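So, can you check?
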Amino acid sequence: MIFVILGIIAYATSWWSTKNIIEATKKRKLVSKDVYKSKKPLRSRFGGLSFISAVIVTSFSAYLLCWLVRDVHMLELTNLIITSTYVIILAGLAGVLSDIFRFDWKVNFVIPTISALPLVFMSDPYQTGLDYVYVPGIGNIHLGFWYFILLLIGATGAPNAVNMIAGVNGIEAGMTSIILTSLGIIAAMQGKISIAIISFTLVAALLGFLHWNRYPAKIFPEDVGTWSFGAAIFAIAVLGKLEFWATLLMALYFVNLFVFLTKIKYEKMEKFGHIRKDGRLTSKYGSSLTKWLMKRLHPTEPQLVGLLLGLQTLVSALVVGLSTYFG
């Protein structure tokens, strides 16, 4: 029942706020070209603000429900929601700064780490004994101080991973939704109901945004969106002690990083792929996973999005199945 209430609030808030952001950004000419359309139409920017708005409203709603219900399980859920909200807000604020000032990659690599602060100061892994990573077949590996280093890596790694694979309509929110759904299922199977509820609620917020961001998109998430999406994955992984499974779920992002690093010298020559006269996408160098698929398959944009979402679904199914095997 709680999930249904919070899910409805998250979806409705995200849907409504995205609609209003589209109207506001058009009036103020805060728009960008949709490069994978033949006529290069202008689309609204800063769509990620709607996801953050939905997270904040849902967090406040959970707090009110906790005050009304006064249940110990509701209190645990509320504390976890508030912590994850802080993580997402800080990542989103860093994304706004990146969108406005267009930092170079070195700055963009560092500033998302501020999203780890709530997990350090509110959860305090070292004092609570949660400074460990669970690895199937081995058990809990306590890392002590090195766990904080892992937090910093995750805080910048997840947001930047989502950002690097961005570029085609609906792919950022779509792939993140699949990953969070998978983490929610794994959490539920492990009896971590509060984490599962938060995961599915975040998916509801993403789907509200995706209504406007799916092909043909009316709005882009920008860094404020991609970084907050990645921060959502990071927060759920850490709070639910699902770091190992989250890493496996992001396999395609590691593939994307590998392709990027092997062809990094071509990235400045070709920031985006190209659309042919027949509406299919292509790329000269294939310097990312999406551009590599463009170069090899020449798909239309909907076909490319469908392929990537299908691959993510396959990866997620395998990881969920593996987590079931290891209990």
Q: What stands out?
A: The chain has 14 helices and six strands. Residues 72-101 form the longest helix (30 residues). The mean pLDDT is 93. The CA atoms of residues 283 and 291 lie 6 Å apart.
